[in-house]
Amino acid sequence: MRPTNPLGIGWQFAANFGSAVGRDGCVADPRQVRIYPQRSKIMKWLLIRGLTRDARHWGDFPEAFSAGLGVEVATIDPPGFGSQNGRVSPASVAEIVDDLRDRFIADLRGEDEWSILGISLGGMATLDWISRYPKDFRQAVVINSSAGNLGNAVDRGALTIARAVGTALLRRELTAPGGLERRLLTLSSNRPAAELDPIGQQWARWQVEAGPKRDSVRNQILAATKFRAPDRVATPVLVVTSIGDRMVSYRCSVEIARSLEAPIRMHTTAGHDLPLDDPQWVIEQVSAWQSGRRGASASAD
Question: pTM for this structure?
């Protein structure tokens, strides 16, 4: 059973510092997390999930990201989802970000240096966050995201999601516990069906145990639909996308990268849920980008 976590915040320390949490990345109280005073200062990362998802849906990715980059990782549930499912999500990305930021500042930020990574709707939140609060994060990674001013409705996945819901209705999957959840998972991931089945069953159980209110789902969809990417951001950004994404076209990420003059990395076969389909590849791209930025900074000095 998932621990009670009213703040929706989870921690995963770098492997050599020991694990402070379980696989779902949650702790009973973030104030109980031990930070070893003798460790050297390292970068911390905040991870934000996508549409109708919460921190549980990261699976083992925070742990792998932490170990692969030698960083500390925190996850946070969006308003209306996961540990926050008793509330209703706002209907704009900006309001979602302000809710996340309030909890981030109150319980996580401190005096440390942070970076941020977001996927899909979490990527929209990341772009909004760094555009309005540029001093909060040193760098940002945006995965398989989109924006209304940089892509059409088809590329952004509106029709794809509508077809998935329609198919689930025709097959009466919506009346089965987690039926739509499993349908959307097969659309968002390109992993073999045999690998997705146990994941889908687990995610379906989460929907039953701590599912969001319908108004929260509706409001997140409205927020994503209305989102417009900023014209510019001061924070360095890496855009990551999948050519094999069947929900949101990779062209949306290409447009985001072009608009922000940001580097882009493209996976050829993974689906929309890139951290689920090929987590190691994502980690390698972020690591290489960071190394390149450090090298460029050293050369400039």
Answer: 0.84
What is the C-alpha end-to-end distance of the chain, expressed in Å?
A: 51
The CATH class of the 9-300 domain is: alpha beta
Q: How do the residues of the chain divide into helix, strand and coil, expressed in percent and rounded to 5?
A: 50, 10, 40
Amino acid at 184: L
Task: Choose among 140, 29, 46: nearest CA to 100.
Answer: 46
**pLDDT tens profile 276-287:** 999 999 999 999
Return the domain boundaries, the chain.
9-300
What is the C-alpha to C-alpha distance for residues 164 and 151, in angstroms, rounded to an integer?
21
The label of the residue with tokens 């050297």 reads 40
Cβ within 8 Å of residue 47, ≥6 positions away? 55, 58, 61, 62, 65, 73, 74, 75, 76, 116, 117, 118, 122
